[in-house]
Specification:
With about 110 residues, this protein is α/β, with parallel strands linked by helices. The chain has helices at about 40-50, 85-95; strands spanning about 10, 15, 20-25, 55-60, 100-105. The strands form two sheets. It has a three-stranded parallel β-sheet with strand order 3-4-5, covered by helices on one side.
Length: about 110
């Protein structure tokens, strides 16, 4: 069986992807209790990009921390204080040619 098409470069709009592998969003619950991306979560995301995923998609990212969170270890984007931990995670994914995306929840 050939996966030539699946492993060939693709695009989403103007964003170029190294292949067509996209990790589906899931609530891995690896964030810290302050809503930031933990070192464990950043390593988890990096490993998926290093393993070949073109897009690493996070699930269950809160838009109203902490009142809108579904669990204690849910990451959030509801305040600028979360930017540094997201930047570190994105940089680790980007280092392996991957893109990062998220599913927002409240």
């Amino acid at each position: 069986m050939s996966y030539e098409h699946l492993l060939s470069p693709g695009r989403i709009g103007t964003m170029e992807l190294r292949n067509r592998l996209i990790m589906a969003p899931m609530g891995e619950e690896l964030g810290d209790e302050n809503g930031e991306v933990s070192d464990d979560q950043a390593a988890y995301l990096e490993a998926r990009a290093k393993g070949g995923m073109a897009v690493v998609m996070l699930g269950s990212v809160g838009v109203a921390h902490p009142v809108g969170c579904s669990n204690k270890r849910q990451t959030a984007i509801s305040d600028d204080k979360f930017i540094p931990s997201w930047r570190r995670a994105a940089d680790r994914v980007h280092a392996h040619g991957g893109k990062i995306a998220m599913q927002l929840t409240h």
